[in-house]
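Minutes, methods subgroup
Present: GH (chair), OT, SY

1. OT presented the first of two proteins processed in the latest run. Sequence and structure tokens recorded below as shown on screen.
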Amino acid sequence: MKSILSDVVSRYSRHTENICSDSLALVINESLVMQDSFRNYINGRTNGMVHLSDTIEVVTQATSKNDTAIPDLQVIDKSDKVHLIEAKFWAGLTEHQPNGYINRIASKGGSLAFLVPERRINSLRAELKIRISALYTLIDIDNQLLLVNDNIVIYLISWNDLIDQLWTSATHNNEQESIFNLYQLRGLIQKLDSEGFIPFESELFTPMAGKQRDQLIDLVDAVVDGLDYLDTKKLSYGVSKYSYQRYFKIYGKYGGYMLYSSELWMKHQETPLFFCIMAKEWSDGGVLPDLNELKEMLNHQNIGVLGILDINSYPAMVIPLRVPVGMDKEYSIDILNNQVSSITSLLK
């Protein structure tokens, strides 16, 4: 069931990111259980480097007399330290982020968190490192934790991870009002995560970007056409809004296709190419595979499986394919061929 916050408010508001951060502040401030859960979550995610005191308050749109930066949230506790949180989905960093915030924290020490979708953490971390290292001394601690000038902790956390933590605490403590508010907030977060508009960047419109998208589709054709055990006779290709498929029979009996999908690329994996085995019975003697049994076989061979998904009206085993970086076309085709062969060898 759709929630009012996720479905109605998101359609009429241009400031849905602010709605999320303001809603989070309300959930935390209105419950001692939520404050404890939030404090424990931050302590755990920063390996104890950010230790908030027992009494906290989360304020929104935290302005300062000394600068023009406006972080989304600030956690006020009994210490003199400054703890800021920038809540984002897909919007890019502004000129103040993160160095304007770091400058505000610098004199007293404290922390700066970026609350973002899980899929954005790695790329945002890389961008933050470049911006911070231009002005400050930076120590790289782990995948989600940085230390600046020995007194400022920079860390990245995901919306879903934080909400799951709060939800678990609210459920265990029978906090019905918190559960209701978190249900609304979770729905809006999921909508923004999957459907939010990602602002365009100039790099997208270079000729190289368009060419490389076409090259990915060319790789699909090159692999399918180059492997003789993938029978494409009387089978064509498919095109949908966000994908391109080349259909074939594997060893003449199992139905399958190789897939380029920008939708799966965005939602599930750091790759746009997938090998798919269909649960479809062919009229001319094909075999209907047991996808669950096949999934176990693939996992046993350390071949990652995205899952069994309903694509093109038929359930299909979807297996991500690694696209090599920095290699020429022939080498890229060889790498993909080897991955496909390791999968199809289990079907002989």
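2. SY then presented the second protein from the same run.
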Amino acid sequence: MNLQKLFKAQAELDKHIIEKKGLQGVDLLPNLILALQVELGECAQESRCFKFWSSRQEPVTEDLRVVDYKESGEAILETYNPLLEEYVDCLHFILSIGNQIKFDREITGRYINDSITEQFNSVFEDVSNLMKSIREDQPESDLKSWYEELVKGIIGLGEMLGFSWGQIEDAYFSKNAVNHSRQENGY
């Protein structure tokens, strides 16, 4: 697991977005944290881990989406993994937050709860603790400790969802390229 190359790639994407959107000097941290919470919710939705009332308990790991159209108007479809894509969206925002707070520690390990539902709840709690640390202007060491806990939780979540680090990296860099392209095409 090499987070440093992901932090670097994310910093390049963030710089691109900030320059393209004219956001230099803007405090984006509250937006990034909210975006992370939204993506965590979307990831939980695809995991279906909490849906005790549903007969569909299995996570959504395969679906089709339109990627283009033929001259005839027929849609060109591709198969993708919605759960992995949402997980990687979370990772993008976590890395952006780390870059914003100038996180510079090496992170090793992860934590795992007894169930995926508990893991999601713990990661949401980590995000809340990080936000509280920012709001209360706690010492930088506390902020970085909460951030490190968040990263360990998201790494554990990925493992619990069944993803290898290779799958996560591949999906991250694929989505990173899509995000760069979106910025060039007026997203």
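Chair's summary of item 2: Strands lie at 63-69, 75-80.
Next meeting: continue with the remaining queue.
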